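Data availability (excerpt). All sequences and predicted token strings are deposited with the supplementary files. A representative entry, Quinolinate synthase, is shown inline so that the format can be inspected without opening the archive.
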Amino acid sequence: SDKELQQLVCENRKALGSSLFLPGHHYQRDEVIRFADVTGDSLQLARQSAARPEADVIIFLGVHFMAETADILTPDRQRVILPDLRAGCSMADMADDRQCEEAWRQLTDRYGDTILPVTYVNSSAAVKAFVGRHGGTTVTSSNAEQVMAWAYSQKKRVLFLPDQHLGRNTAYKGGMSREKMAVWDPIRAELVPDQPGAALDDAELLLWKGHCSVHENFRMEHIQQFRSEEPDRQILVHPECTWEVTQAADLAGSTSYIINQIQQAAPGTKWAIGTEMNLVQRLAAEYPEQSIVSLNPDMCPCLTMNRIDLPHLAWVLDEVSSGKIVHEIRVPEDIAADAGLAIERMMSLTS
Ligand code: 13P
Ligand code: SF4
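Structure token line:
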């Protein structure tokens, strides 16, 4: 039963003490996040994992790319466990290193040495390594503006992987017109203007054609419905949502930004939030004096985040307690070294 599983988790955690570190992303289920040592967005969790040298084992309550980043950043490459290995990220899966090399070949043929690659941390270690090898950096939704400004101080053009929406929204906010953007389709291996008729020669932002299947489900029709039925409800969305939705919303920002907005709001404030279901539901429960609903009535869970559940957590903890490492995430040395360059570059820009 759940009660027995919870008891098992509590006992094993206590027995392992500070040799175990349990970071948890805000999109995780209630049934596991309640056991996390720290909760945070992807940047906060990466920093926290690096700052726990006393932990021999990190059980990551999040998705595969986050566990890879924890493995890369832990000074002695502590053992990192992902309770369910099927907890991937459909966005990260939209770019692989072979596709990156092909894009780089074609894009540098066209634009020469004017491009810096930048990847959202929601990408595989192999893609981060490609970026690190070419002098680029990682970025998260909470530091995207700052890191993009640095990227443009280095080169005239940025290749932004793998989320076209975060790339487009960030550059537009920084003052770039959509005429200066183009989209790289990794399946067709071709570049098309973001706005019909715009000249590819003028493009300064080359957006990888990837997206988050959760955040793309917040659509203009949802905003229009709230605007007509409840005009006093504020629309607050994550920048993984499309450009149209982000523009039409009242506010847009990273997971931490969304949480800060709610924390600072007055009782009685009404919100419709465009981000993952577990976070929206948790905020609604924690701030009952405000009115918090999902922007999409279907709620929009991230199926892979939700794969980390209480039975998986209880099982891996039990194995660790008996000295066994299961479901380990281990990035090969050479990839970890190059990916580490890209992550460290971001860290040094934003510390
Ligand atoms: P952040 O935690 O950086 O806001 O990322 C959101 C997300 O989609 C994580 O998978
Ligand atoms: Fe990936 Fe989107 Fe899920 Fe985040 S919410 S893990 S970007 S699919």
